[in-house]
Amino acid sequence: QSWSRGMSYCLHSESHLDTGPIYVRENGKLHMVKQGAGGLQNVTPKERPFSLFSRSFSVELCMNREDDRARRQRTDHFIFTYTKEGNLRYSAKSLFSLVLGYISDNVDHIDSLIGFPEQIAEKLFSAAEARQKFTEPVTGLRALQKFTEAYGSLVLCSLCLRNRYLVISEKLEEIKSFRELTCLDLSCCKLGDEHELLEHLTKEALSSVKRLLLKDNSLSDAGLRRMTAPVRVLKKGLENLMVLDLSCNPKITDVGIGYLLSFKKLNCLDISGTGLKDVDAVIKRLQMQIGLVHSKVPLKEFDHSNCKTEGWAEQTVLQWEQAVMEARKPQDKLKSRVTALHFYGKTRRIEEVVKCTLVEPETKASGNLQFYKENIQNCHLPLKKEVAGSHELKNNKKRALPEQERERTSKQKHLCLTVEDWDLLNTY
């Protein structure tokens, strides 16, 4: 009784405290005292669930909160399909696909791909291209360089940037990373003599270029002099060039054509629409020194139909172009500005992409100046018709050839060994 009175007193005196259930051991058994009941109750204690948090507490499990791509990767491990009955069915991806996706997401962290099998590298490039990893400003360039260093022409063997001067300005470093290109079309880009990409043409990385189209690029004799300096002096640079298009560059004169005589492997040349003063002299000079014959009909090599972007990075170049066009769209939808110009009576400034037509006014004025190299058997056919009549013409021809040869060698010495050429070569 004294124990029950003391316990009830304790309970009533500390009723303001939430002590929870109280257990008392008596005669080897546990008894639970209910607070507020004032008595004992012989109840066997039951295990109650222990809760750390209140009912209003919420928990969110985050595996990786660096970016939203980590959340999307949770479903990338499965392939979701539907059965014939219309039920959703998913199957796990192969380990190769999972590893390929992980590496493509972190392709910019690869140290080197040299010696890696090109069959797997092509799949890795496609996976990274599908994730648009090569369009990112800094990491895209670093990732692209790893592929071009290891695989060269497999990444891109032909590049057509005709009338895409915006892509050149935005992705210049990426374009310069391509190696072992055999065809490069830069027509109608208005690059000028001092452009960084034209200087890059003389580097060793593009010594494999065989087809170079520079139509309508505001080139002059100074630009040709810079492009041909390594070939003329060091026998390096564009030494393998076979097709060259310099049409629609009015600032190129007879002096600039003289720099082209160092391209010994040149088979086709287009100088229509240039600023030549003595066309007949240029035609004879090209025929006598590098064996190029004036064509009376347009050549298929300069119709721009065969120049295409080919290689692993074909879709990458298209993504660059789409990104440039998307960046230009907001400027085309400024309706308020247009209405304001109409209100104040000002003419709207039309900004259209400059299109390069195949027939230019300069070309019509100067005529078709396309040249090709005949076969060795038919190389001197035009000359035989003139010479077949008399022996005097043959002797005059024999005397004229050494004079022209001495003139050619003297001019080559004058072109190759000037101080300006050596200063120019030191800049490469």
From TrEMBL:
<comment type="similarity">
    <text>Belongs to the LRRC42 family.</text>
</comment>
<keyword id="KW-0433">Leucine-rich repeat</keyword>
<keyword id="KW-0677">Repeat</keyword>
<dbReference type="InterPro" id="IPR032675">
    <property type="entry name" value="LRR_dom_sf"/>
</dbReference>
<dbReference type="InterPro" id="IPR001611">
    <property type="entry name" value="Leu-rich_rpt"/>
</dbReference>
<dbReference type="InterPro" id="IPR039631">
    <property type="entry name" value="LRRC42"/>
</dbReference>
<protein>
    <recommendedName>
        <fullName>Leucine-rich repeat-containing protein 42</fullName>
    </recommendedName>
</protein>
<dbReference type="Pfam" id="PF13516">
    <property type="entry name" value="LRR_6"/>
</dbReference>
